[in-house]
Amino acid sequence: MVGIIVLALKTLAWWMTGSIALLSDALESTVNVATAIAALIAIRLAARPADANHPYGHHKAELFSAILEGVMIIIAALLIMREAYHGFLAPRMLDAPLAGLLVNGAASVINAFWCWMLITQGRRRRSPALVADGRHLLTDVISSVGVTFGVLIAILSGWALLDPLMAVLVAINILWSGWNVMRESLSGLLDEAIPDATLAEVRETISREAEGAVEAHDLRTRHAGQASFVEFHLIVPGEMTVNAAHDICDRIEAALKEVLEGCIVTIHVEPERKAKLSGVVVL
């Protein structure tokens, strides 16, 4: 609903002024509405529990949503550049510029508040789709502020070419935003490891909680949307009972889930003769 209100206000501002720069702002808001709907669908799909066909869950649905958003941002940027090209060929002064800028400014204020809400909630919920949507909105807010000042300068100076020039700058800005959104999502689709700082916490937790074991090696991690996966081999003394080894695994798993909320842990227990004398040393 917020996106639709913002889109309506920006479209009204463009209609009032005929500004190509304000049209570029409205086109970007069209993308916002479409991607917000895609993000909502993806979040609901990602929340579904694992099933027979998706035993590892549906977490990557959010990453596909973020990539779709990046693609749509790039398409919007190309459309903006097309309009700017025609504006360079036939520049003209704007109609009712100040009233249009006020309407566009109101839309930007609403967008800024909603952007803050999306990024804050996305980070708290560890949701790539929400964070991606919020970051794109942040780019939209920055673009809107730049467009407002650019159009204002065009009005005061009488330089009509500044209007399509601002549209080109908006297009370049959102192209960069689209690339960043897609790059971050691709890291999840390609099973990139968790961040180094978090990985260090994981190693320290295993080392601290694996008392009774010999070592842990072949530690691997990956992230997919809100879920993170941790797996490793745990070396225990050959004479240790299955129950005792299982208790160590339960203790490590519980501790890791406190460090990395919602993580899925897989531990392969091996006898002492499989030790590699490398990896995580048990304290």
From TrEMBL:
Coiled coil: none annotated. Residues 195-272 form the Cation efflux protein cytoplasmic domain. It is found in: Cell membrane. Residues 4-190 form the Cation efflux protein transmembrane domain. One of its GO terms (molecular function) is zinc efflux antiporter activity. GO terms for biological process: intracellular zinc ion homeostasis. Gene3D superfamilies: Cation efflux protein transmembrane domain (1.20.1510.10), Cation efflux protein, cytoplasmic domain (3.30.70.1350). Belongs to the cation diffusion facilitator (CDF) transporter (TC 2.A.4) family. This is Protein p34.
